[in-house]
Amino acid sequence: MKTLIKDVVILTMKDDDRPINGDILIEGDKIQKLGHQLTDEVDEVIQGQGMIAMPGLVNAHQHTPMSLLKGFSDDLKLMDWLNQKMLPAEARMTPEDIYWGAKLAMAEMIKSGTTAFADMYIHMNEIASAVAEVGMRASLTRGLVFLQDDGGKRLTEALELVERWSGKAEGRISIMLGPHAPYTCPPHSLKKIIKIAEEMNLPIHIHLAETKEEVIKIREKYNQTPTEYLYNIGLFERSHVLLAHSVYLNHLDIRLLNGMRGGVSHNPVSNLKLGCGIAPIFEMINQGITVGLGTDGAGSATTIDMFEEIKAATWLQKLAYGDPTVLPARQVLRMATSESAKLLNIDNQVGTLEIGKKADIILVDMNKPHLQPNHNIESLLAYSVNGADVDTMIVNGKILMQNRKLLTIDEDELLEQVSVRAKRIVQGI
Q1: Number of domains within the chain
Q2: What is the number of alpha carbons within 13 Å of residue 377 lying toward its C-beta?
């Protein structure tokens, strides 16, 4: 299958490349050519006039089934949100609910420009099945909480996920191990996960220092910061690690992370909405730490539109440092594409538009009043575009959305399933 995107403005997000006018030839699942007036015989032509072609956005931290709980528990303090609303509702979710919740999140992500995501939840087989059907790219993680002895059930499920799904769905699915957080994983459990990850060459996805309460808990129990706790236990010695949030890191913490494999997923909308704080990502970046962007789950963020995260990330850092030059448009766009791809350990495949890389591409329609005049493409993408401006999405060379129409999801069936299931899950809570 050959597809040609014609007469489009191409933003590769590679190094210092500037936008160029041209064509993109896709053959199979890869980008074969980037050039001017390509004349190859193809199976399909996509007219790109007035569009920007750029790498698909990569959501570095998600909990997809939480989309069923969107708007259910807003304007609450974090522990009230968690204990009074989230946990009771999640306890009612069946594996089928998980499947449809994940599919709802994928529909929203596709319609707002996200081609790949990192997910941590339970019933991951159902989420993997949804990924395989829908056509997105995903790094999947079975969340591991070790506060109670479950006889090894969670870890067994995590390892079964690796065996069943790693590299499956045309290579679109990868797997990480997911110890939930420092405060839910005692030393012996973390050491066991680290050992398994090293033996199986698996990345690790873990929450870190999302709240002040977590910092206090770890300090009281281990007389360390959460970052020191993970560092001293050996998490960063050999493993590729994806750290979610990292809001409460001091200068020493950041220095400890310098040189780590992987990096930090900054989730500004969720952190803001729950009143958690502003992560010091500008300092992290200056210390050489890779920082990407994620949304967290829709249960906290309410939106999983990555263009909203792009805006929030740059505005917050400019405000926090009192400096409008901090985190400029191009840099924050790279955070949502190439840098997030590094966190998922898939930057050799996606994150930039290059010959030989996977064809994960979005087309953004710029023919709209809020996107004109076009003085600076990158500024418009960072500060003015929203998810609804994404017209077409391609993942692995396959078109998942065209002219805003989902091609791999029956939207009417999805909305019907979601309505019934969401009402049942939250009734009486």
Answers
A1: 2
A2: 20
Q: Minimal CA–CA distance to 200: which of 247, 249, 233, 167? A: 167
Q: Kindly report, residue by residue over 219-244, the tens digit of the pLDDT.
A: 999 999 999 999 999 999 999 999 99
**Helix or strand run (H / E) with residue 131:** helix 124-134
| Helix residue ranges, H only, 322-410 | 329-334, 340-343, 377-383
Contact indicator for 128, 167 with CB cutoff of 8 Å: no
Q: Side chain identity at 182, as an amino acid letter?
A: P
Pairing of strands 361-365, 290-293: unpaired
- Here the CATH number for the domain that contains residue 92 is 3.20.20.140
Angle between helical axes of 212-222 and 226-233 (0-180°, round to 10) = 50
pTM above 0.90, yes or no: yes
Residue 423 lies in a domain: no
For 374, the domain range is 2-55+358-406
Tokens of 30: 């890869």
Same domain, 384 and 290: no
DSSP SS3 for 140: strand
Residue 236 and residue 170 in one domain? yes
| 61 membership: H or E segment, kind and range | strand 57-62
pLDDT one-digit tens code per residue, 1-30: 999 999 999 999 998 889 999 999 999 999
